């Protein structure tokens, strides 16, 4: 419970400046900032063989503009026994797809549920996809239960997909970048 409270407070502190900004009424939101939060203990996604990847990061994207992306983060991989197999940073190179999901965050008009597929490059030269899914579940049940909260990732031929409900994520509309 203490970890949950700390995570919620950290989320609020990081995103507080964006809470008081909102887009113009009736304007379609196109630019977003995404977050995959690092928790203690860190959250991971698992491959079929039991190996895991830890991901934490943030960045921005513009819907419909595949190369209008920024950001990245950190990664670490472990074999099924828990032994470290790699660590480093990753960079987002393209937005493959983004869909808003129904749901809201009372009091936070720029927060959105959704699903993003981001093409990434790891600093060891490998490539993959980062899938970020946000249900806004820490605000209560406003999003359909079919929308998970967390991330999955691929790294070359390994797909870390299992255990998708694995950490807090959020999409925040960026006012002023909606053109």
Key words describing this protein structure:
single chain, 179 residues, mainly beta, 1 helix, 10 strands, 48% strand
Helicity, as a percent range: 10-25%
What structural category characterises the helix and strand content?
A: mainly beta
Catalogue the unreliable spans: 1-27
Overall geometric form: globular
How many domains in all?
A: 1
Number of helices: 1
Strand proportion: over 45%
Give average pLDDT, whole number: 82
Structure description:
With 179 residues, the chain is mainly beta. The chain has one helix at residues 2-19; strands spanning 31-36, 44-46, 52-62, 65-78, 84-101, 111-122, 127-134, 150-155, 158-160, 169-173. The protein has one domain (2-22, 30-173). A six-stranded antiparallel barrel has the order 1-3-4-5-6-10. The protein is globular, with a radius of gyration of 16 Å. Residues 1-27 have low confidence and may be disordered.
């Amino acid at each position: 419970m203490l970890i949950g409270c700390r995570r919620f407070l950290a989320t609020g502190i990081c995103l507080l400046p964006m809470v008081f900004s909102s887009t113009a009424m009736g304007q379609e939101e196109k630019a977003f900032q995404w977050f995959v939060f690092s928790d203690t203990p860190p959250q991971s996604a698992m491959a079929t063989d039991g190996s895991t990847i830890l991901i934490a990061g943030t960045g921005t994207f513009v819907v419909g503009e595949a190369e209008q992306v920024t950001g990245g983060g950190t990664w670490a991989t472990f074999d099924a026994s828990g032994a470290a197999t790699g660590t480093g940073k990753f960079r987002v190179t393209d937005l493959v797809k983004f869909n808003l999901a129904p749901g809201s965050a009372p009091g936070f008009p720029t927060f959105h549920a959704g699903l993003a597929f981001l093409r990434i490059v790891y600093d060891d030269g490998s490539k993959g996809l980062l899938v970020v899914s946000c249900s806004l579940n820490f605000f209560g049940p406003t999003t359909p239960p079919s929308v998970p909260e967390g991330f999955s990732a691929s790294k070359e031929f390994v797909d870390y997909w299992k255990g998708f409900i694995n950490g807090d994520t959020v999409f925040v509309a960026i006012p002023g970048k909606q053109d």
